[in-house]
Amino acid sequence: MDDIVILYHPSNISAYHKFREKLLDAYKMREMGKLKWFLGIRIIRDKTLRKIWLCQDSYITKICNKYRNKERINKTLLTPISTQQLQPYKGTATKAQILEYSQIVGSCTYSTAITRPDIAFTTKQLAKSLQNPGP
Q1: Helical spans, DSSP H, in the chain
Q2: 3-class SS at 109?
Q3: Can you list the pairs that 116-123 forms with residues at least 24 positions away whose Cβ atoms lie under 8 Å?
Q4: Dihedral (Cα; 103, 98, 135, 119), 10-degree rounding
Q5: pLDDT, tens digit, for every residue of 69-125?
Q6: d(CA 31, CA 9)
Q7: Average pLDDT over the chain, rounded to an integer
Q8: Phi/psi of residue 120, nearest 5 degrees
Q9: Could you say which of 16, 37, 55, 122 would form a disulfide bridge with 8 (CB–CB 3.0 to 4.6 Å)?
Q10: Residue 101's CB: how many other CB atoms inside 10 A?
């Protein structure tokens, strides 16, 4: 195991200390302080409002920069996918196009599973074209 986060309710602080001591006895560990990042996910906490946000903004920016169509860089879309049914591509995609499309959809699916369930429908629709994506 490489990374670990321990979360506990303040009423369970004694159980936390016992658990922590057992871990320190069994493994060489170092404490990193307040949780700000974990496995590429930025953690934002507002203790007064008792809220926590998990953000993959750096990952999403990296993916957008890697795959973004240069002509559409500053174009903002109001919806993540067209409301019209996607039609199958009548031509034949090259192996390189299929690979790149698969990587893009896979990257989106990863963020869907971790922090962006709001794009799950869109990624599912896009995944239907993995075998022969169109332009």
Answers
A1: 13-26, 57-67, 95-114, 120-127
A2: helix
A3: 116/56, 116/60, 118/80, 119/80, 121/81, 122/80, 122/81
A4: -30
A5: 655 555 666 666 777 788 889 999 999 999 999 999 999 999 998 888 888 888 998
A6: 19
A7: 86
A8: -60, -45
A9: 16
A10: 20
Tokens of 93: 């995609």
Q: In whole angstroms, how far apart are CA 89 and each of 22, 32, 36, 120, 131?
A: 58, 50, 43, 22, 10
CA 37 to CA 43: how far, in whole Å?
Answer: 6
User: What predicted TM-score, i.e. pTM, was given to this entire model?
Assistant: 0.69
Closest CA to 129 of 66, 117, 104: 104
Contact present, 45 and 51 (Cβ < 8 Å): yes
CA separation for the pair 123, 98 (Å, rounded): 15
